[in-house]
Design goal:
Blueprint lengths: L2 H12 L5 H17 L2 H17 L3 H17 L3 H5 L1 H15 L7 H17 L5 H14 L2 H13 L11 H12 L3 H13 L9 H13 L3 H15 L6 H13 L3 H11 L9 H16 L6 E4 L8 E4 H23 L3 H10 L41 H13 L3 H15 L6 H14 L5 H20 L3 H15 L6 H18 L2 H17 L3 H14 L4 H17 L3 H18 L2 H14 L3 H11 L8 H14 L3 H18 L4 H14 L3 H18 L2 H17 L3 H14 L6 H17 L3 H17 L3 H17 L3 H19 L6 H20 L3 H8 L2 H7 L3 H17 L3 H13 L6 H16 L3 H10 L6
Antiparallel strand pairs: 1-2
Helix pairs in contact: 1-2, 2-3, 3-4, 3-6, 4-6, 6-7, 7-8, 8-9, 10-11, 10-12, 11-12, 12-13, 12-14, 14-15, 14-16, 16-17, 16-18, 17-18, 19-20, 19-21, 20-21, 21-22, 22-23, 23-24, 23-25, 24-25, 25-26, 25-27, 26-27, 27-28, 27-29, 28-29, 29-30, 29-31, 30-31, 31-32, 32-33, 33-34, 33-35, 34-35, ...
């Protein structure tokens, strides 16, 4: 690499995120600079390394680079040293902060660094404001409260200057001080103007939000506390250097009654203890984690990765809590031995004693925590309980039970049968009464439950045998039809089941009344449904519906069965009409269960999302307990289709809660839905939190495709939050997961998305690499238009990265792809668009090499092609580039001729209009018409030449 290449590498490393990758790149660069004997580069790289070690989680290494730079600065001052003077003085603050966090470093050495810091600050004309602050920090660390108060006063009364901490970091320390001295209201008041502004600092706003957590709780600002925790933790959780602040969030979850979330945070960061940035950070995290683990239910375990001689495995939380408490107290003792006080041990003792305080503060963006003493709300029944007559005889009780069975009154059915068993069980009853009781035994069993189906089948067999012995052929055939429908649910018994149901239908068609005939055909329809013979099922249920009007309950039931069959046959328009009819019939008889399922079916097939929402609104108050989850999901989905994401959030959150309460699988899918609703509603922090939960859950279920789709959503949310590195990490993981021939289009899409994030962040060289990979994947997937777009974007990224040779070489590749698309018999607008923009991108690269004629040739006719597809903004940009190149080529007359109509067609307050006016004014200057140029600059508020 040339010297220019090394300096370019340093610039690229500076733009990398803090962490192991940046540190490794810097250490390699330092070695190369030393090998080349380049003192300037060696100094500059070490200066960057000092900052990178501090924020990358390895502050111990910063002592070495800082000391080297300071000695080099003093030993042989060079002109380039002067450019780093301010940064070197700033690094003194890093050193004092870090030295306090290593108990093996004597306090005398820290105070000596402070003295040197103060001397240098004064010698360079700076105030001692930052020095006073750091003397305060030393006093606070050792528990010298009076001394700390005096330094605090001096710090606040000394004028700020260029070496003072930023407008977010100084107030953060002040907030901590005010909380420690029992003035939380003042702490909140101090922070409010800071938070209302815009903080531009590596540590903010997460540091001040974390500091405010106890103040918010202490002043009953619960919503502010929750929001501060969510935003701050999101910004901290990926940074090893912030382990101490993460400990504060673990403790916050513990004291607010969010033990499950505290454990989640502990498990997520537990392995960081093995590479803690400082002993102080390890001490505080170990103490906060131990306190959280002590609140966990007995029997829980936590996974811990292997480290050194320690194997990976599950560790009981009580064992882990004791281990972490021992770590924290041992470290506190080391600090106290150095400091000559017990202050650190007292702090750790308080952390270890942390537990829930006051009322629970809900933090989860997905699961709603219900009070333990309050059962889940169940809608009150709309009908009065069925009275059981005290003097009813056996047959009257069975009549009542049968009527309740027919009218979906399970409470009355069970009450009547219970009364029968209490009064008449064990007594001699006529065979018909015994058979009726056996038949009603089936009604007591939940036939839909797999474990109960065998019991229902056996009960039907006993009832069938009893009616055959009475004998009563008609009642026997009714029971045989029920038995057959149940047997059709099993592959092994399907043939027997169909034979029984068909025989029942034949007999009842000849001997039964209208209701019995309709019910028989309804059972036949169910038998065909169980065998997925949809055409025969539809014929049977329509035959049943034709005669079911004799009994409104049977009519509603057959109508609902018809809806189900039509749904499976995907007869959309018929489903809507059938579901609407089923709703009316169920509503008329007051059958809440049937009304609920009819409403759900209508919602699934409604053309207008408002109609779907209305159907769910009708079902929600009457839905049985086992259907409330389905109603919430359907209502949330309907709101999403209606572009009412903010309304969908409540339903999806309640659905997640119900799913968790019921112990059902699938809450990961619902969290995915909820995350998407949060995203669409613009609540990105909650979207990220819930999507992260969803990804974990989907991975555990082995739902790889769905987990990856949720990762894609999460990457977009991260990008929206400005969390570039997590977004890129997810997209890279997705690209790896999608590395297969069937996934090429999706792989290309995520690679291009990663390239776009990098390009928007001015990390152009890396963006070019992603666009290159995306273009290759698009080509393999034979998506040539997408390939051309990715190549065009790669070309521009290389251009802006300053790699003109690579960009020029790529022009031929771009032209090749564009040439393939040019051969289409009828060019679609998207092809016209991409070919035109590819020509523009190539022209920019050629202009960068001062090949103006070639660049203008590429732009010939491009603007016209863009206008032909109504891409007027892009056409104007091409015209402006053309005008700029004409001016650079000393062709002001042609430039004026082009730019005047372009300027006249643009909105006067637009960015393009300002650019066009600026170029046109330059053309007029070149044509020796300064008055016109000045007038143009005045009209468009442009600076004079």
């Amino acid at each position: 690499m040339t010297n220019d290449d090394l300096w370019r590498a340093l610039h690229e490393v500076h733009n990398m995120p803090y962490g192991v990758g940046q540190i490794a790149a810097l250490e390699q660069l330092i070695r190369r600079a030393e090998a080349d004997g380049d003192r300037h580069l060696a100094f500059a790289a070490r200066m960057q390394a000092t900052t990178s070690y501090v924020y990358g989680g390895e502050p111990a290494k910063s002592f070495v680079t800082f000391s080297w730079c300071l000695a080099e600065f003093d030993r042989d001052p060079q002109p380039y040293h002067q450019r780093f003077t301010h940064q070197l003085l700033w690094h003194f603050k890093y050193m004092v902060n870090a030295m306090l966090k290593f108990p093996e470093l004597p306090l005398d050495r820290t105070r000596a660094v402070l003295d040197d810091m103060e001397r240098r600050y004064r010698d360079t004309g700076h105030t001692p404001q930052a020095v006073h602050k750091h003397r305060y920090l030393v006093a606070r660390h050792v528990g010298a409260h009076d001394e700390a108060a005096e330094w605090y006063r001096k710090w606040l009364t000394t004028p700020r200057d260029a070496l003072s901490d930023c407008a977010g970091c100084d107030p953060t320390t002040q907030v901590q001080h005010l909380i420690e001295v029992g003035r939380p209201d003042e702490a909140v008041a101090l922070a409010e103007p800071v938070l209302s502004g815009r903080l531009h600092c590596t540590e903010q706003p997460q540091a001040i939000l974390t500091a405010l957590l106890p103040a918010y709780l202490g002043t009953d600002r619960r919503d502010a506390a929750r929001d501060a925790h969510r935003e701050a933790y999101r910004r901290l959780r990926a940074n090893l250097s912030d382990l101490w602040d993460i400990a504060d969030h673990v403790e916050f979850c513990t004291v607010t009654g969010n033990g499950a979330r505290a454990l989640e945070l502990v498990e997520r960061h537990l392995d960081w203890l093995d590479r803690a940035p400082t002993p102080a950070a390890a001490m505080h995290f170990a103490a906060a984690a131990a306190a959280a683990l002590r609140q966990a239910p007995g029997g829980l375990t936590m996974h811990r990765r292997a480290f050194g001689d320690r194997p990976a495995g599950e560790v009981p939380v009580d064992t882990l809590a004791d281990e972490l408490a021992g770590t924290a107290t041992a470290l506190a003792a080391r600090f106290d031995a150095r400091n000559g006080t017990r202050h650190q041990s007292e702090l750790i003792d308080r952390r270890l004693a942390a537990g829930p305080e006051g009322e629970h503060l809900p933090l989860s963006a997905s699961v709603r925590r219900r009070p333990a003493s309050t059962p889940t709300a169940i809608p009150a029944p709309r009908r009065e309980p069925v009275p059981v007559p005290a003097g009813a005889d056996a047959e009257e009780l069975l009549d009542l039970a049968e009527e309740c069975w027919r009218t979906h009154r399970r409470d009355g059915l069970l009450a009547a049968l219970r009364a029968y068993d209490e009064r008449f069980a064990g007594t001699d009853q006529p065979p018909a009464v015994v058979a009726r009781r056996l038949e009603l035994r089936v009604a007591e069993v939940d036939e839909s439950a797999d474990e109960a189906r065998a019991e229902a089948i056996e009960a039907n067999r006993r009832a069938l045998a009893a009616w055959q012995e009475v004998p009563d052929p008609l009642r026997a055939q009714v029971v045989a039809g029920r038995l057959g429908a149940l047997l059709c649910m099993s592959d092994a018994d399907a043939d027997e089941g169909l034979n029984l149901v068909r025989a029942s239908v034949d007999y009842l068609d000849d001997h039964g009344d209208q209701r019995e005939r309709a019910a028989a055909h309804d059972r036949l329809a169910l038998a065909y449904v169980h065998r997925e013979r949809w055409t025969e099922a539809l014929a049977a249920v329509e035959r049943a519906a034709a005669e079911a009007d004799v009994d409104p309950w049977l009519a509603a039931r057959t109508a609902l069965h018809r809806v189900h069959v039509l749904e499976r046959m995907e007869h959309g328009e018929q489903v809507r009409e059938a579901a609407d009819r089923a709703r009316r019939l169920a509503r008329a008889v007051g059958a809440d269960d049937m009304l609920t399922f009819a409403c759900l079916a209508y919602a699934r097939w409604a053309d207008d999302p408002a109609d779907a929402v209305a159907a769910c609104d009708e079902a929600l108050p009457v839905a049985p307990a086992d259907a409330r989850l389905a109603v919430r999901v359907a209502r949330g989905q309907a709101f999403m289709v209606a572009d009412r994401a903010a309304d969908a959030i409540e339903d999806f959150a309640e659905a997640v809660t119900l799913c968790v309460e019921q112990g059902a699988e699938g809450d990961a899918f619902l969290r995915w839905d909820l995350a998407n609703a949060y995203r669409a509603a613009g609540r990105l922090s909650e979207a990220a939190e819930v999507a992260e939960e969803a990804v974990i859950g989907l991975d555990r279920l082995g739902a790889q495709a769905e987990a990856d789709r949720c990762r894609h959503l999460l990457a977009g949310v991260y990008a929206g939050l400005g969390e570039t590195e997590p977004a890129l990490a997810l997209l890279d993981q997705l690209a790896e997961n999608l590395d297969g021939p069937d996934n090429l289009p999706h792989r290309a899409e995520v690679l291009e998305q990663a390239g776009d994030i990098l390009y928007q962040g001015d990390r152009d060289a890396l963006a070019a690499e992603r666009f290159d990979a995306a273009a290759t994947a698009y080509r393999l997937a034979q998506l040539r238009v997408d390939e051309l777009r990715a190549r065009r974007r790669q070309l521009l990224a290389l251009f802006w990265a300053g790699d003109l040779p690579a960009a020029v070489a790529l022009i031929d590749v771009v032209d090749e792809v564009a040439g393939v698309l040019a051969g289409l018999p009828e060019e679609p607008p998207v092809v016209t668009y991409e070919r035109a923009l590819a020509a523009e991108a190539g022209a920019r690269v050629l202009a960068g090499e001062e090949r103006l004629v070639a660049a203008l040739d590429r732009l010939d006719g491009v603007a016209g092609r863009l206008r032909s597809i109504e891409a007027f903004g892009e056409a104007a940009q091409v015209d402006l580039l053309t005008g700029e190149l004409l001016l650079r080529g000393d062709q002001p007359t042609d430039a004026e001729r082009l730019l005047r109509p372009v300027l006249g067609g643009l909105p006067t307050d637009s960015r393009l209009a300002s650019r066009a006016a600026w170029l046109l004014a330059n053309a007029l200057d070149a044509l020796h018409r300064p008055d016109e140029a000045a007038d143009l600059r005045t009209r468009y508020n442009l600076p004079p030449t």
